[in-house]
């Protein structure tokens, strides 16, 4: 990572590398501990193998995530390692991507590393990375899109015009690929356009005149984000509409070509293009119908899955998901998709504080994090189908960044209480990480130890939080 002076920031490089290797070690360690399939592995690795056999399946999500799982199967076979290695490696990159994103946003090395470490301490990201599931691909591609976006905004000089075009185009491509894993990846696309809208409003003469009466120059307050409002109209169109659309369509291409070998084997030229467009539309229509059909919705009294949860509950980690459970006498093994509760609760408070702070102070990093969180979280409140806590993974990353900003601000205080409070926060997060690690990795536990981690007291009048 280069500084503004063009020199390597060795502290950032070493810190980022440490975070990545620590994350990778936890994800690869004993990766085949439990036999295939675990939870939704019953779906995605099977779909991935079908691509390798040339018989694609229509399912509830676009194909890109299954291609990535298929790559692992090509390298290691259709087994526990092959099915999971792609998720493990890309999931391990998420704390590193957070580190890079925060550094691009703030140019603060310590803050960037702190954000990466907090992301490393989460449990849901760890669990999702250890199985053949899709969500880590979505988060990683979304973070990548934002790194390219901020890098492109740093290319302000005339001779850097080509570099800006390249970075912003890569951002758009990543946005398209992000939606190509799951449609909710479009939250990062929405985030980008909200940031563009804010930057354009900052340049509006009426807004400027209104704010000038309050002695506020919004363009200055927005920092590098203000440059999003200076792009020519065609750059918005190309980088953030056309490039995402092209990327989204391209990732469908292998899928549709395989389908056409069966349903239109003799089509050529214009007929082949018509058939391609027809089956592309049909595949996306199927995704829409699957996500909106009554069988995927259920009712509050009769949910279609015991671990369905409301979006409102995610920020408090009220309904995590059990992925695996096995009991052999008094030796229990459990994998629970539970976020680090101390990290989640503190980060929820932090993102609220950051949003209020951002409105008052109008600092670019605070506005950026608030928009990232809101764009990836609030749309879930209008979704009617059965939802799960892992849908909170994208907004949770921005809440971790918010907590890192707040913790760093406390540590920078001249008063000793700020430093003490920052140390207490980090100690509590790491303590929770160690305590809950057995149910993230599926380590053997006694029944009593299991119930302690579920915060459930079966022989007590006070039942506890009960994550079972």
Kindly describe this structure.
By secondary structure, the chain is mainly alpha-helical. It has one domain (10-454). 65% of the residues lie in helices and 3% in strands. It is built from 19 helices and two strands. The protein has helices spanning 10-28, 44-53, 64-76, 80-106, 109-120, 124-129, 135-154, 161-179, 186-202, 205-212, 218-222, 233-263, 269-292, 311-314, 341-361, 364-377, 393-411, 416-441, 447-454; strands at residues 321-328, 331-337. A two-stranded antiparallel ribbon has the order 1-2. Strand 1 (321-328) and strand 2 (331-337) form a beta hairpin. Helix 4 runs antiparallel to helix 5, helix 5 packs across helix 17 (393-411) and helix 15 crosses helix 18. The longest helix has 31 residues, at 233-263. The radius of gyration is 23 Å and the shape is globular. The two termini are 43 Å apart. The relative contact order is 0.11. The mean pLDDT is 91.
